[in-house]
Amino acid sequence: MQRRAVRLATGLVAAVCVAASLAACGGSDDGSSDSPGAPGASVPTGTPIRVGFFNPSTGPLASPGVGTGSKAAVKYINSDLGGVNGHPIEVIDCAVDGTPETSISCANKFVSERVVAALDGYNLTSSATLPILTPAGIPLVGMIPFDSVTGSEATNRVYFGAPQAAYLIGALQAFQQQGKKSAVLVLADTPSSHQTIDMVLKPIGAALGIDVTGLYYSPTNPNFTALASSIVSSDPDVGGLIASPNDATCTRLLQNMRQLGYQGTVLLAACTGFIKQAPAQAANSAIYSSTWLPTASTHAPANSQEELKIASKYIDAENGTADYYAYGTFSLFADFAKGLATAPAAELTGQGILATLKGLTAFPGFLGPELTCGKATSPNCTTQILLFEVQPDGTTKPVTGTFLTALPDILARIPGAS
Amino acid sequence: MTPPPAALEISGLSAGYNGVPAVRDLSISVAQGEVLALLGPNGAGKTTTLLAAVGLLPALRGSVVALGTPLRGRRVERTARAGVSLVPAGRGVFHQLTVAENLRLARRRGGADLDETLGHFPPLRPLLGRRCGLLSGGEQQMLALAKALLAGPRVLLVDELSLGLAPLAVRGLLPTIRALADERRMAVVLVEQHLDLALSVADRAVVLHHGRVALAGRAAELRERRDLVEAAYFGHTDPASPFEPSGSAP
Amino acid sequence: MGEFLQFVFLGLSTGAVYAVLASSLVGVYAATGIVNFAQGSIALWAVWAVAALRADGTLVLPVGSVGLGSGPMDRVPAVAIGVASAVVWALLAHLLVFRPLRRAPVLGQVVASVGLMIFLQALVTLRFDTTSLQALPLLPAKVLTFAGAHVNVSDLVLAGAAVAVAALLWAYFRFTRPGIATRAGAEDERAARLMGLSPDRLAAVVWAITGGVCGLVAVLAAPTIGLDPTSYTFYVVPALAAALVGRLASIGLACAAGLLLGSFQTVILWLGTKSWWPGWAQAGLGDALPFVVVIVALFLLGGRIPSRGEVTETRLAAVTIPRLRPAPVALVLAAATAATLLTSGAWRFGVVTSAILTLLAMSLVLLTGYLGQISLATMAFAGTAGFALSKLTTSAHVPFPFSILISAMVATAVGVVVGIPALRIRGAQLAVVTLAAAIAVQSFVFSNPALTPFEGNLIRDPSLFGLSLAVRSGTDLTTARFALTVLVIVALLTLAVARLMAGATGRGFLAVRSNERAAAAAGINVAATKLLGFGLSAFLAGIGGCLIGYSRGQLSDASFTVLAGLTLLAMAYVGGITSVSGAIIAGLIGPLGVLYTFLTQTVEAGRYYQLIAAGGLLVTAVLNPLGLAGTTGHHARAWLSRRRRPPEAPPPGAAAPTGTEPAGTVPTSPEPSHAA
């Protein structure tokens, strides 16, 4: 009986391994590049520029839009733009789930694959990658540093969007001007959130004279009814989410808050889905963003409208998630490619790329503001954000009509923000 | 006219524990309506025989056939449902359940009538709502028998009915078994330490010693020859005895 | 007051899930004597199945999927199919896993139950689109006002459903014939069979009913609680706590305790938002609560938990006393060194991780294999040491060998504390305690932002006499120096433990494992032995945790998850939990080790790892309780002995039912009830 049992067991295990390997071979590829598929301009023929990409596609705080944006952007770059001066971009996609372990393992992978740059797809634990990337000479390039530790220094990193603090400052300064005095804002309970609330939100609130409270919700079991109750119970002037990995979270929270009879302003991070999903409750709500979004195209300047059309074309063709993260990531890749293209004879090594990007001055950001990188104390290339108010017609209009600059003296209190 | 098939036919049975047989090459048959007393000292293999007959112990060799249906290799539940009931030495009543619940579990389609069965054990009637753990030994034994009988068995095996009971109580139960055996044409095997009681109600008796039949014969005759029975208990079988050492004597 | 009530009612949604899981746990225990750790995972599958059906009408199966209709399915048929899927999984669990294990030792039953738990969880992660599926609303969204509190009608419905389920189960066991028969079988299985009752069939009925009701209530609660691939699996821990409050016998108490626990957790969440609530208690206190409940319940009520009457006594798996012969030891060491030096990059990292896992598996072999204490808290010990190491190296700058030693001593202290309940609690209940402890430590300590600095739990690279032993150097992701340091540490500890186990301590452990009373009668101090076992095991795990820390450079709550610990237990069992060579095999096949690296790098099937591990565990637990090492060793010895002398004819009648016994077995034989 035992011998047969052992054979059976070994056979089963072997069969499972074989089946798994067959499935894996036949199934998804989580490796290399997208071939430049879209018909259009020149097909780039130079040696590919290999970049690693931290893609937050798994885990409880996964952002599916990031992957959509990256795929769309690579197609755009390799076809419409003809690559970077004729060199196509090849992306090594690596899934992270918000934990340092996966970030470290992806960083290790990029080092052994000898990429020339690593792109940060809103990774919550990007700081874990720097001890690995920096000695290997690989720069970290992103839009907004979601890990405050990453955002606190400028070494070996470039971020095309404003620092996290700028969004909070910009939003709160606008609310303060509207006469609002209290705010309760929530974040998923992660170590970086605690840093954001303790080191960024509280000082900003103190400086602006707004009574601001930060709350946390469990990433794995968010009880939105309980969360909404917590927010609404003190009846603040502003309530809402500082950041949300997907649109569904915003919509659920908004619906729950309104159901409890909350009448104040709801800040919903960078979500746009709730406008269609919960139109009745969308009035008196605000969102912020690093880039122009399709919901604001009627209020955007002409060149931004053109860029929105291009981005939407590629993003919609992916049939994925077309939220802020898709557009933000698209812009990240576009800025990266266009920025590199400014120096035609640039060395396409890690250090060369870093130098080129840091050298960008008054560079027109894709769907974004003017970028000037290379600051000594901050990795960010701008401190400007867009704060939108949801209009009755379902569009989102910038509160100041255009980009909003975060108050510099308050920004100066946050390390790495300016 | 051929004799009716034996209710229980055990042939060449060897059974034991961890591969060591406690019963060797045993052949016993019990007719319908017959009461067989299975006797012998401790360790003779009496309980082993009963356990092997119902399937609680795997048989190493031999066969067990009840009313024409072979039982060996079957699971205990199936044997029980096929009409072979064992009242084990531990009585097998459920202490956490009430008397009524115990009886309810025992009832089966095609079994005996509850009222009629309770009629054989009148002391149980007022105790229907009581938890069995609170009953006396005699009452529990009555319940065990009632449960076994409710299933309407064709073969009833009883292990150590008198264990832990006052003789008076036993004296009340055994005649009931005798009467039911006659009434329902039920074959009964009684494993007993109490010689006189067993021989008083049995038709035939078999004495086991070290797992083999040491003595067999009609109960009435064995009652006269106590000396032979005692000798068999000690393992001395007299070749000159009128009683067959094999179990297949009529 | 109104707010307090509001949160009490809000907690009824999770409370209802706890309550129905707890009632089911009591029912399954009554029917089978098994503590089913997989009860939450069964509900997990149902929840996701309904989400997929309501998204686009796809019925997702373990292999493949079937499109039912062209669009999203309506709520009633979707819920019906979801509940049916839970029933099917429950019945499969009974038929394929738990019925074959009726006679197995408790360790086998617990391990199989845990294996099923992580198998289903891994399957859900692989089969469902966990990033985009949503639990669409099912219950009406009305809100009532009651005593100043906003109360959701859905929460009331859920609580009502949980109470109805408990009443249904109670009535089943109390009034119906099959229910009474199940209770009878739990008390005395043999007597039940003698009456023609079939405990297996009765158990199947209970499995089906409990699977169905757990699926139903979880599906109804999912829109409120949220959809996630892990949490429902671990809801079994608060459910176990509630079931233990009911002494694993009272369904009503278990249900009430579950509802109360859910409310309590939500109230704690609410209190955490208050400014006067202490910062260190803001995160994870609710998750630590079940552990407290478990301990209190077991200490107060432990003696009154009914145990099952068995037909035959169970036979413990054979233990191999390690014999250290120079040739095999040198061979293994040489192979390990060669593997380290000849590989590089990710492969060398895999080899190093395998060595560390060997150490963690040794800790399990010691505690569970030799001492017989079922502990699911290995990763908690490892993590405690890892986090202590972080504090020691960054804040106190303690140098290399001392940092590891002190951290491991911290883990040892924790191990001894966890071992104290083991003095009074054993078997599956001890497994529950250790699991609850592991979750409490993970939520309340590892995930607690008050204990974690903002930069993360960094660990300074080790160095010895000025020589850097860091794991990374430039583009070299795993330096040879670090790898060899790890090998040396692991080898020394393994040899030391093997020596220990071959001596008097080992014999004491085995004696306690076989029969505590007999051991005490023989003069062994059982309490001291148990605490020693827990302490040693925690020490080994602690060293392992420190090495993990050094190998990564940074730790987080994801470094030592309960799920990883259970996967490691699975692999330790597959490798062979009763021998040192089993620990080595476990290291090779463990998470992030050599096999994992092979699956990820060469075959790109890394995401199937947990599924393979859990599947291997189930197969091993059901078919072959000795594990790979034990069986290989057994066959090797049999082959060697056959070569030495010709086979003899077995003595007549001495058929051995379960194979030969290597050194150290304590066979038990069933005794007839009365000598006849």
Report on the structure:
The complex is a heterotrimer of chains A (418), B (250) and C (676). Chain A is an alpha/beta fold. Chain A has 2 domains: 29-162 and 297-382, Response regulator (Rossmann fold); 165-289 and 384-411, 3-Layer(aba) Sandwich (Rossmann fold), CATH 3.40.50.2300. Chain A is 41% helix and 16% strand. In chain A, strands 6, 7, 8, 9, 10, 13, 14 and 15 form an 8-stranded mixed β-sheet that branches. In chain A, strand 9 (265-268), helix 10 (273-277) and strand 10 (285-289) form a beta-alpha-beta unit. The radius of gyration of chain A is 22 Å and the shape is globular. The termini of chain A are far apart. Residues 1-11 and 13-40 of chain A have low confidence and may be disordered. By secondary structure, chain B is an alpha/beta fold. Chain B has 2 domains: 1-83 and 154-250, Rossmann fold; 91-152, no CATH class. The longest helix of chain B has 18 residues, at 167-184. In chain B, strands 6-7-8-3-9-10 form a 6-stranded mixed β-sheet, with helices on both faces. In chain B, strands 2-1-4-5 form a 4-stranded antiparallel β-sheet, covered by helices on one side. The model of chain B is unreliable at 246-250 (pLDDT under 50). Chain B has 9 helices and 10 strands. Chain C has 3 domains: 2-304, ABC transporter involved in vitamin B12 uptake, BtuC (Orthogonal Bundle); 356-560, no CATH class; 565-638, no CATH class. Chain C has a two-stranded antiparallel sheet. A two-stranded antiparallel ribbon of chain C has the order 3-4. In chain C, strands 5-8 form a two-stranded antiparallel sheet. With 676 residues, chain C is mainly alpha-helical. Chain C has helices at residues 2-10, 12-32, 39-56, 75-98, 106-127, 153-175, 177-187, 189-194, 199-225, 231-234, 236-245, 251-272, 285-301, 326-342, 345-370, 378-394, 400-422, 427-446, 480-502, 504-514, 516-521, 526-552, 562-575, 580-589, 594-602, 609-623, 627-644; strands spanning 58-60, 65-67, 143-146, 149-152, 457-458, 463-464, 467-468, 554-555. Helix content of chain C is 67%, strand content 3%. Chains A and C meet through helix 1, helix 3, helix 7 and helix 8 of A and helix 1, helix 12, helix 15, strand 8 and helix 26 of C.
